[in-house]
Amino acid sequence: MPLDPAIRNVLVIGSGPVVIGQAAEFDYAGSQACLSLRDEGINVVLLNSNPATIQSDHRIADRVYIEPMTVATIEAIIRKEKIDSLLPTMGGQTALNLCLRLHDEGILEKYGVRVIGTQVDGIRLAEDRILFSNFVRSLGEPIADSTEIRKEDLWKDEMARFAPGVMRTSFSLGGSGGRLFNSYQEMMHLAEDFFQEVPNGRVEVEKSLRGLKELEYEMIRDSQGNCICVCNMENIDPMGVHTGESIVVTPSQTLSDMEYHRLRSSAIRIVSGLGIVGACNIQFALDQESGRYYVVEVNPRTSRSSALASKASGYPIARIASKLAVGYSLLELKNPVTGDTYAAYEPSLDYVTVKIPRWPFDKFVGDRKTGVQMKSVGEVMGIGRTFEEAFMKAIASLDTYESARFRLHFPANSVESLIREPSDLRIYAVLEALFLGIEPDYISRLSGFEPYFVNKLQNIVSALSGIRTGEIPENLVDLKRLGLPDSLISRFASIDEIALVKHRIEAGIMPVYKAVDTCSGEFRARTPYLYSTYEQDDETPEESQKKAILVIGSGPNRIAQGLEFDYGAVKAVTTLREIGYRTIMLNSNPETVSTDFDVSDMLYFEPVTLEHVSNVIARERVWKVLVQLSGQTGQNLAAHIAKLFGESIILGTPADSIEAVEDRTMFSDSLQRLGILQPPFAYARNSMELEEKIARIGFPVIMRASNVIGGRSMDIIYDLDTARTRFAEIIMERPGKDILISGYLENAVEVDVDFISSGSEVTIIGMLAHIEEAGTHSGDATMVFSSESLAGKTIDDLTRICSTLSREFSLLGISNLQAAVKGGSVYVIELNARASRTVPFLSKATGVDWVDYAVRKMLGGQATASRKPIKSVFLKYPIFPFRRFPGAEPLLGPEMKSTGEAMVPGRTYREAVRKLMDLMGIGEVHSILITVRDQDKPKALEIASLLSDRGMKIYSTPGTARYLAENGIQCRVVYRMEDMRSPRIDEILRDRAVDVVVNTPTATSGSMRDGYQVRQLCIRLGVPLITNITLASVLLDPSIHATEAETREISEYQ
Amino acid sequence: MERRLILADGTVVSGNAFGSSKPARGELVFTTSMTGYMETLSDPSYRGQMVIFTSPTIANYSPDNSKLQSRGLHASALITRDAHTTLPIGGDWAKFNRLLDENGIPGIDGVDTRFLVRRIREHGVMPAVIADGDLEPEPFMDSMKENLVGQVSTREPEEYRGAGKHQYLLVDLGVKKSIIENLLRTGSVTVVPYDYDIESVAGRYDSVIFSNGPGDPDHKALHPLRKAINRLAGNIPMIGICLGIQVIALSLGGKTVKMKYGHRGSNHAVTDGRKIMITSHNHGYAVDRDSIHGTGLEVLEWDINDGTVEKIRSVSDGILAVQYHPEGMPGPDDAREFFTEVSRMSGAN
Questions:
Q1: Residue B60: left (phi > 0), alpha (psi -120 to 50), or beta?
Q2: What is the DSSP string of A866-926?
């Protein structure tokens, strides 16, 4: 079946802001889908509220809507764009859920919009746990015993048979609703908690398959019923750990042929039964002892796993799935990797890939256990010819405290208990146990890891243990061949990493590069998608005459360094390709668009480390390296690259300038010299100096070390005890460095300025004003971009400061300035000599491709940016993962905690705020709970009086209530949770008597705790919570609700 | 110990020795199957061939004897990137090593197998030899000139009783156990040597099956069998699998060709023009599509990529044959339906 001519205007729904369980992989899938449909001459309309995505760009989609992702928005788009077809399988769970709602509310039918690809019935069958169980059983396929229970079922005797088990609600995203229980009692507790919150709800309980081997199959099926398996994946962590939280190997390593194909055949039967057209992921649990398997779950769409499978196998799943959705069959499509062979083909891999999740436990201190709920925010993939090599590349890519050290140095008993319980540390505990000489078989039994993998890890440990300190290992060649990274060899040998890299390259110990070609070399591949290994034969294509520019990717998505940086890297490559350079991309993140082999001339899928960057520079005779678009990762590498290959290799702001800016102490000195205001500051190198230095500045203060991503380890500190503790921690992490102590400007307005320096002149990309007062991390702040948010003088001052700094530090390319405005004066807080995360936001808001402009300027070329006056208002609203981290304090401070952001545009400020309220789930407010700290009470009074005038019900805790009453506002008193009196806060929250909660934290720890419980409860119950009084006064302006919000194509705002 | 693999074009690669230390020679081929190393090594079709596993790690799961496709291992050598460090030393590794040793099969790992694959892809399959240390390698020899079928075919007829009523006569050209197992679901199987006088016994059976096997289908050792097939055509349903399809085509006047580097793997899509199936392949020769005009044979399925003949039939002569391996092992189950067709062709059960 060729292309269906009835498909003309397709709406593709993206996945919205990055949240845990739904991140960059859907930008990759969605971008591929849009391009794939456009190839066919189809008009592609995209909806995604996430401005950091590459897909929300007119190069990718014909029409782009960056609007709140609601049914109402989609209905408006359907009408406006005369949509005839909807592709809902490229935007994760968000898009699927929207599709089901559009269907259920009759909107698809009303406008005659048809769903292309997998149909609604199939989606529902796969998504509804109970329907799915019945469906699987009807096919004669095995599935774990499960049932759906209501509150009244709970006491039935038969419930006992489900323990140990998992309890979940349907339509979970990244397993957010899943909870494990070990006994009937535990199950009852969980269920009671749930029914207390959702009394009329239903939960599903399922007998646990914990401990069995977990496998995934990535399937593709066309409308003719042809079905292929793109690849399978084996989770090293046995069942009980969400696959997004598991270390995953592709292809499976420990399945026999019979096991492999038995599961494959089962997958085909299920995919066919569901009527999948496109991509589908199936998870199995396998008991190798008995030979029994169980179907665990199906994702009837592209998923995180399909992004991983695409990068692991080379097979572009989303691209092919989109073609199948518009009518093609697998017989009619070519495999884009080889160009000659057909898409109807199952990739054969002659290498191994290992994926390791990247968890945010550096930001969310607390429970590090992993399980059926997803907590990781990103992932890395290593490709190697052996498991050891692939695993070590993944470790090297992680860029965490533990991965850099590799050894935990814990005693045997704590190592053993870490091995028993899944957590982010388990893999290091397994390694540590091997270092301690504990038997691999025993470790395998404790962890549930296959002996095969433990033995492979033993090979790594043995080799590392053999390294002597103080010298370059004699068997360096063997160590490299095994796959050990230079960073670890140098750490174990106690030698300088740069010296080792230099020695290795000079000694000619260099890797060869092999292609990821879907076919194990059987056919000639056209795509230059390479990985390194220490073997004989190199497949790097012949050097071209063009000058080569290496663009460094930003590695795994993490909090404060996500999708926004991939945007920059991809945009830069696009421009460099257009100019005519040979573009080389190096990255280790399988979720990204940058690791799509179509993006660059050459893709090196490698850890973003000095070792691999240096190898590629040497192999490709790279002319320039672009580091300023890849976040802090690139910044931290710049100096080392310059040391090895000379200053001139860095494109844009030179390495020594980056250092001068990153070094807080040097930077503060420079500001002083230049006469630029900054908050009072001092340095301390040891704890003795600390007290005296703080006394000079006065509390509150912020303490910072240099070169940190996303304000890691920054806190506002109000007292000396906390200051001492934090100081000790920072010194531990960055020994020998001066720690900068700076005063925290209370009640100032913070501004983010992105600007481009071209040597002689500075171009302002945009200035974003924070709605919250200074102190909230710029990644976490709600911001506004409009022509009216800053005073003219402030704009002039900031512009002048940018010019001064640009000259002072020889900035070239994009930089970001963070400043605080207080009493009409501008204080500089921070300068980043790199593109910040707001660049894509501002590019979308202004309609200018600023990365393109900057890249051309960096190369000394001519470029003009046709910037128009700002006609609209754009809000940047951060999204937080607090639900995932029970116990984590949902308060904002100088440490970044958000995972993603939405852009909310409006013709007016009021319209934008109106949309933001929709997005936050704040509908018409009838009742509100206000409980605020003393300094916020005057503002709270303003809000309360406005609301009270409109007859809204106001609840307050006694303190706030008293203040309001004294000022003539009557409200209902609610008591703290531990109070005996009624109504208590938890009661009114559970009764849904409150539409929104305003709770601001006090600085002292005592009442912090009360507020903490309120905030926790709001997070759990999903009650909209505002923790900043300024933001509250914006959002709760009662007149805003009357404002009409309109849905517009992004260019209509420009 | 260092072990060398020397190709006829002069390429030498070395790696670590395991398995038997006997010198070996054969045609160097590669398989892209990612699983099934035991099935592959014990497939008689690999007789006379040194097998490169493109999947970099081998022996990563237990070398379970129940997976063997015949009574011994047949590949003449095993070449891989990584075998040494995978199975736990002592247990399964010792067992696998012993199995290789008993069957006289040398192994090399630590080899850049992808380099060899690319070489074969460009230059075609070629003879190679294996030598340990400084030992003088044996001369190259084209193993396809040997009577490989004679080496692997059963010496005496064997009877297997199955579930259904069909009586299958299977001519063993190097049959895989799993083919017999699939036939046993619908009947009993008499396995006879390749040079057996099938004409005299054919009348007692519902159909004759010509199995997979090694080597050149045009080898003179198979000429008597071709004559018998020619005479039997139209009198009894005949079924071919792999080498079987080639011998049938030759018997009816068709031709076969040697492929540059064959199809060996579990991921080959075959099509009838409407649908596709993913099938397991292991063949270095193929039926020449143009040559079967006028033989009464028609092509039903072909390889989606290079058009290789994958399934033929002759309605008038009651012939049905496939180039792929419907039994998988290693490989997918997509084509298992073929055995139902075989049963159906063999009359009511």
A1: alpha
A2: -PPPP-SEEEEEEE--GGGSTT------SS----EEEEEEESSHHHHHHHHHHHHT--S-S
- Pairwise CB contact (< 8 Å): A349 & B34: yes
Q: What is the pLDDT of residue B1?
A: 82
Collapsing DSSP to helix, strand or coil, A321 comes out as helix
Q: Which pLDDT belongs to residue A174?
A: 44
Catalytic: which of B84, B242, B263, B283? B242
Say which CATH topology domain A9-124 has: Rossmann fold (3.40.50)
Q: Is the pLDDT of residue B47 over 70?
A: yes
Residue A76 to residues A94, A986, A1047: CA-CA distances in angstroms?
A: 18, 38, 6
- Residue A17 in tokens: 């802001």
A680-743: CATH topology? Dna Ligase; domain 1 (3.30.1490)
Q: Collect all residues of chain B within an 8 Å Cβ-Cβ radius of residue A537.
A: 112, 114-115, 118
CB-defined contacts A:B, below 8 A: 157
Each residue's pLDDT tens digit, B221-271: 999 999 999 999 999 999 999 999 999 999 999 999 999 999 999 999 999
Q: What CA–CA distance (Å, rounded) separates A770 from A768?
A: 6
User: What tokens were used for A885?
Assistant: 């981290």
- The rounded distance, in Å, linking the Cα atoms of B98 and B105 is 10
CB contact under 8 A, B305 and A340: yes
Task: Note whether A918 and A1041 are within 8 A (CB).
Answer: no
Mutate which of B181, B305, B306, B333 to test chain A, going by most A C-beta atoms within 10 A? B305
Residue in B39, B54, B88 closest to A348 by CB? B54
Q: Give the CA distances from residue B104 to residues B49, B51, B59, B97, B108, in Å, rounded to whole numbers and listed in that order.
A: 13, 14, 17, 10, 13
Q: Which residues are within 8 A (CB) of A437 and not within 5 positions of it... i.e. 6 or more apart?
A: none
Pairing of strands A85-87, A9-13: parallel
For domain A926-1037, give the CATH number.
Answer: 3.40.50.1380
- Nearest-neighbour CA in chain A from B88: distance (Å): 7
Across the interface, of A257, A451, A459, the residue whose CB is closest to B85 is: A459
Residue of B278, B279, B336 to mutate when probing chain A, most A C-beta within 10 A: B278
CA closest to B262 among chain A residues = A522
A341 to chain B: closest CA residue: B305
Residue spans of the domains in chain A: they are 9-124, 125-199+211-347, 535-650, 680-743, 749-871, 926-1037
Q: Does the distance separating the beta carbons of B269 and A342 come in below 8 Å?
A: yes
Instruction: For domain A535-650, give the CATH number.
Output: 3.40.50.20
| Per-residue pLDDT reduced to its tens digit, A145-177 | 888 888 888 777 778 888 888 887 654 444 456
Q: Is B146 a catalytic residue?
A: no
Q: Given the structure tokens 């059983």, which residue do they identify?
A: A137
Active site residue B325: yes
The class (CATH top level) of A749-871 is: alpha beta
All domains of chain B, ordered by start, with CATH? 2-144 (3.50.30.20), 148-345 (3.40.50.880)
pLDDT at A173: 42
Domains A9-124 and A926-1037 alike in fold: yes
Question: A634 in helix, strand or coil?
Answer: helix
In contact, A95 and A88? CB cutoff 8 Å? yes
Compute the nearest-CA separation of A3 from chain B (Å): 16
Q: What is the pLDDT, as a whole number, of residue A171?
A: 45
Report chain B residues whose CB lies below 8 A from the CB of A228.
269, 276, 278
In 10 A of CB B281, how many CB atoms? 23
Q: Which residues of chain A have pLDDT under 50?
A: 171-175, 710-713, 1004-1007
- Supply the pTM of this predicted model: 0.94
A330 interaction partners in chain B (CB closer than 8 Å): 269, 276
Query: How many C-beta atoms lie closer than 10 Å to residue A339's C-beta?
Result: 12
